What we know:
The protein is of the alpha/beta class. The protein folds into two domains: about 5-40 and about 270-365, Aspartate Aminotransferase, domain 1, CATH 3.90.1150.10; about 65-270, 3-Layer(aba) Sandwich (Aspartate Aminotransferase, domain 2). The protein has helices at about 5, 15-25, 45-55, 60, 70-80, 95-105, 115-125, 145-155, 175-185, 225, 240-250, 260-265, 270-295, 320-330, 355-365; strands at about 30-35, 85-90, 110-115, 130-135, 160-165, 190-195, 215-220, 235-240, 300, 305-310, 330, 335, 345-350. The strands form three sheets. Strands 2-8-7-6-5-3-4 form a seven-stranded mixed sheet, sandwiched between helices. β5, α9 and β6 form a beta-alpha-beta unit.
Amino acid sequence: MPEAxxxxxxxxxxxxxxxxxxxxxxxxxxLLDFSASIYPAGPxxxxxxxxxxxxxxxxxxxxxxxxxxxxxxxxxxRYASVSPDNILAxxxxxxxxxxxxxxxxxxxxxxxxxxxxxxxxxLEKSGVEIHPFPLSPDLEFRPDSERLIDDCRRHxxxxxxxxxxxxxxxxxxxxEDMRRVIQNAAENxxxxxxxxxxxDFVPEDSISRDTPNFSNLIVFRSVSKFFSIAGLRVAYxxxxxxxxxxxxxxxxxxxVCTIGAVAASRAVEDVAYIAETILRNRQEREWLxxxxxxxxxxxxxxxxxxxxxxxxxxxxxxxxxERLIVDHRIVVRNCASFEGLDSSYIRIGIRxxxxxxxFIKALSSLVSE
Length: 369
């Protein structure tokens, strides 16, 4: 392995194949990516056809996008079972959270850790004081719902940032339990920012449709992961009407390009694709989880399209992450970049059975050494 590779930091995000290719001098085309949590089968066929049709029309590229994104918001509203008047779309969850923090004038936020690294970056950028709420691997990263609000009160937090399913563990709080947390927060004048970026894989636990009924709740969702269109950067938030207007004022104009809006609108209408994706992902997640358990690793059996696991004690001194790349051309997410975790934790996206078998074979050879 090149000396430069060993000194380079672990990528802060998954899917950084160009960086990995340069770091380890491995052709990018040879890398099999398990580090990004994106459904591997590609977008719905209707999305490809819609994009082909769109780029044949010169006006699509010539004209500005609809500044209010009416068609996209209508499609997202039907999909999430809320009024389009409660929806704002943008090119990713981070700018939506940024606009929300500005609108709410948040001062102090309770942040569950480990967590997606962009949360801390956006909170710090907005000048929000962060109070970490550590989640324990011994409890499978399950939060104590009562302690959440108690800690908010103790630190005088006006904002609580939650993820459901949790990233990186995949633990999912049931919808009814989440509603109790939101209600308890409301009674204590605490706003809840809930990231449901991966909830499409467990739609029964979404509380998106309840958002207009909670004046303290803003839900964030992604179209990228489930529908396999991460390259187009489309996300949205759902908020009650009185919050919606203030947040909208903090978003820049034209936050989603026309091509992205066309693709996302078509994607969320493909009922057959949605059902198939939920089924296939669950089958492969359960298969992978069982195989990992068979290798003697500690597996956190979540509900999303990824699995977090911890390497056995005797394997932690070896750089399994690097060996997978150099010896097997497989890229996984080294979780040392997650606050509160170290390199003994690895997260993998759920891929096809053929790819998953290759991964298990590769990991088995390293763990057994």
